[in-house]
């Protein structure tokens, strides 16, 4: 009996792995034509200053409208693009799209941008892109070609680049900072690297990961629930842990002279907690979901 159970489990996972491989294979094949066929889109999620709710920029996020499967999210196709050698091309395309948006904003569609000196668009860079020798030069050239000032850009990197390619990565980051780009560490607190790299790297912003922000407000909701069902609070994740981590990141950033952006802010309670403890800016459904370029331009002109 036990043997049969084992065989069933085996068959079950075998099928699962098979299905996954098939989908992966399909994604690799279709990714190669996705750019050419204009199935990719860059959407923009506003980033808002905590103290006055002004829009200080946005994060550029990739979307893939697959002809058969409709939307495929970047959490699924970016890792595939990385392993299939397609992420460099994709990354370049995103930066170009952002240049086009910025030029549109600068050329009078939104006249305020000229005086809005802090407005930046954040672009995610994959650790795989850092394995290229020419990453910095590639980025610099795109900005030069489009005539967009580097001070309008911020690049988001994850902690994993510091395990992978510490020297090369910090070199590229230093050069990006030197020409005026911002650089932030994304999903901060979820990686496994040591904190010592932080003092060696010229990054200017830490982004508190959505998972911590998400659990901040269950403090309030679980207090509420506990009042109604005294025994039910136990299975909830303890929000004090997420709060402790958020506070540690905020104080670390302050002491290193860095800005903090909290991502995934959905509720007022989360915003209140972050504001109370000195978080500079936030990004999340509370202020705006990622939106197509046209909607984003409308969004910022309405707010101004
Ligand atoms: P990320 O860079 O950490 O981006 C933040 C993610 O959180 C986005 O997911 C965004 O839509 C989501 N988010 C923001 N606010 C909220 C909220 O209030 N609630 C919830 N539930 N979610 C929120 P998205 O767009 O699916 O992207 C997932 C990841 O894919 C990104 O995480 C990033 O690592 C990667 N990615 C996206 N675009 C690119 C790109 O152009 N290049 C590279 N290399 N990676 C990208
Ligand atoms: Mg990001
Ligand atoms: Mg993030
Ligand atoms: Mg993330």
From TrEMBL:
EAL domain ranges (all copies): 24-304
Signal sequence range: none
Protein name: Diguanylate cyclase (GGDEF)-like protein
Full protein: residues contained: 416 to 719 of 719
């Amino acid at each position: 009996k036990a043997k049969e159970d084992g065989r069933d489990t085996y068959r079950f996972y075998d099928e699962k792995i098979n299905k996954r491989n098939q989908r992966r294979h399909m994604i690799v094949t279709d990714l190669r034509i996705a750019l050419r066929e204009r199935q990719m889109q860059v959407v923009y999620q506003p980033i808002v200053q905590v103290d006055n709710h002004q829009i200080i920029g946005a994060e550029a996020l990739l979307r893939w409208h697959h002809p058969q499967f409709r939307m495929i999210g970047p959490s699924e196709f970016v890792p595939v693009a990385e392993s299939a050698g397609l992420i460099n091309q994709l990354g370049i395309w995103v930066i170009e799209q952002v240049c086009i948006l910025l030029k549109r904003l600068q050329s009078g569609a939104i006249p305020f941008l000229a005086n809005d000196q802090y407005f930046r668009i954040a672009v995610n860079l994959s650790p795989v892109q850092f394995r290229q020798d020419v990453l910095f030069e590639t980025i610099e050239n795109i900005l030069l070609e489009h005539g967009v000032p580097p001070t309008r850009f911020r690049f988001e990197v994850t902690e994993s680049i510091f395990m992978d390619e510490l020297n090369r990565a910090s070199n590229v980051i230093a050069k990006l900072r030197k020409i005026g780009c911002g650089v932030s560490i994304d999903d901060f607190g979820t990686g496994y690297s040591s904190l010592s790299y932080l003092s060696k790297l010229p990054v200017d912003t830490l982004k508190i990961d959505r998972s911590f922000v998400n659990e901040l407000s269950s403090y309030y909701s679980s207090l509420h629930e506990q009042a109604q069902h005294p025994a039910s609070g136990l299975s909830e994740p303890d929000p004090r842990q997420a709060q402790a981590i958020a506070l540690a990141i905020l104080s670390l950033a302050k002491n290193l002279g860095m800005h903090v952006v909290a991502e995934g802010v959905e509720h007022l309670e989360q915003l209140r907690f972050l504001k109370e403890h000195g978080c500079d800016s936030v990004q999340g459904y509370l202020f705006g979901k990622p939106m197509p370029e046209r909607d984003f331009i409308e969004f910022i002109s309405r707010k101004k």
